[in-house]
Structure formats: C-alpha cells, structure tokens
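User: Predict Cell differentiation, Rcd1-like protein, putative's structure from this.
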Amino acid sequence: MANVPEESPLGGPSARGAGSSAAAPTNNPSSAPHDGNLSEITRLIRGLNSEKTRKESLDLLCKNYLKVCDDLAILLWNSFGTMRALVEEVTSVYRPLSSTSLSERVAAQVCNAIALLQAVAAHPETRMPFVKAYIPVYLQAFLNTMNREKPYDSLRLSSLVVIGSLVKVDDAEVVDFLLVSQTFPSCLRCMEVGSTLSKTVATFIIHRILLNEQGLHYCLVPADRFFALNNALAIMVERLGEEEEGHRPRLLRNIISCYLRLSDNDRARAYFSGYIPPKLVDDTYIGILERDQVAHSNLQKLISKLKASQRSRTQPTGHLSGPL
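Assistant:
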C-alpha cells in the first residue's frame, strides 16, 4: 500500500500505493501524457469527484499513471474539486481510525488517495501550493494513531512518505511548516509504534529537519524535546535486531545520521560523549555497517567527534569505543 521514494536516502525501489519519486517537469516526450492517455487521465480525475466512481478512479490512476506521468501532479492540482475530493477520502476514515474496525480494503483505498497527494507533494510546481494550502495537516491523524495493526500502519507509512517527499528538497519554508504543524512529535510517535519501514521514513524526516538550522534549534530547545528524540533514537538502536531484516540497514543509517547532525551542537555533543547507546559503537551491528559505506563513514565521524569532545573535558563521564 505504501512505498518510499526511489533512490532516496530511504533507499529501495518504489512500490505501488504511496506515489513515486520526486518528479520534476520533464521535456522527455515518453513521460508526457499522449492525447489518448491525457483524455483517460482527465476522465479518471473527474471521476474522483463522485463517490460512485472514486474507488475505480483511484485504483486506475495509481496503477496505470502514477509512475509514468510526470505531470500528473499538475493535472491533479489544477483540476476543479480534485484536492477537495482527495481530502474528503482521507478524512472519511477518521472515525474508524479511533477504533479497531478499520479494514484493509478501506485502508487501501485511502492509501491510494494519499499516493496521489504524495505525487503533488513531490512535484516542484505543486509542492509549495500544497504546503500553503495546509493539506498535509489532514494526514496528522494517521501519524498519531498508536494502533500497530497493518491497515493503520499502511496509512501511517503512506502519510510519512508524503512528508518525506516534502523534506527531500532543502526548503526552510517547508521545515517551518512542519515545525508549526507539530510533525516532530508525530514522527517520534511513529518511531515508537510504526513498522520498520515507518520508523525508517520517520527517522529520515527527523534527519532532514535537523539539517536545517532552525530545525536543529527546535529539536534541542527546550531540553525536553532533545531528550525525547534521544530516547527514541536510543530505543531504536537497542531494538534494531528485532526489526525486519531487509530494512535494518536503512534504519541504522538514518539513526546514525541523526546522531551525527545532533553532535554538531556543543551541548548535545558533550552529552553524547558521556553516553551513547553501547550497541551503536560496539560490534553488535558490524555486519550491517560493513555493507553500508555511508553508515560506516558517518559512524566513524561521530565516534571521532565524541572522542575529541571527551578529551576536551577535564572529567570525562564515559568511554567510547568503535568497532571499525
């Protein structure tokens, strides 16, 4: 039902259900809709406005055109009533979301609607209008649910991929929107209760927020916010061996990236030099690190920075050792 953007720091190929990788307008004729396809796409987009034809339109748009029509986002955004229809589909499951009655069939249909929203979020011409219309706010309910069952996590993951598409491009306005709309605590919640892939995308989003100076300051002040993030990261390090094996490398890479960026701050670096999750710096995950040069390099940089911070302190409170 959900996928991560292709060739992003989240890694892995896309799968049907939550959109494709960020798609810039292209001059490649093979990716532009031909007259016949355009007519069919237009018909299906119009079909989103009717409850009678919405399910079929969602299915066919996601199955046939989401990956091959780069300008689908523009067609969706500029079509009368389409965003309203997609938001209506999203909000239709708010009530069952608060119970245990959400079926996989219903969740799949809503995930298709979110997939089209992700296409709009990923496109450079529609990204900021999408943000300024506050449409991502309608996805917060899916990020905040504590239910771990598959239908709920499918909605969680699909919604995270929308946010992930927004933060793939460095944009201070996007980060400011995410901070104001309380995306940070929502991602921490996903890091606690989500599937391995949901945790991976949520951690990627946190890292992208941290890369922005305002985002880094937000995550450090007040201290409660920093300790909440540190706790979430430490728990994921401790339990990484329990996660889905195929997604562990990406999750570990994103965790290390968060620690490395946080260590750019003097106070955070001093804290980490006194304590860092032991499993991060011993040989527990050496097998993963040996196969991921980016994670390997980032961990070495982190260890080096923290050791330097220890040496600069008159009374070091901990000891760091590295497996590499």
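The radius of gyration is 21 Å.
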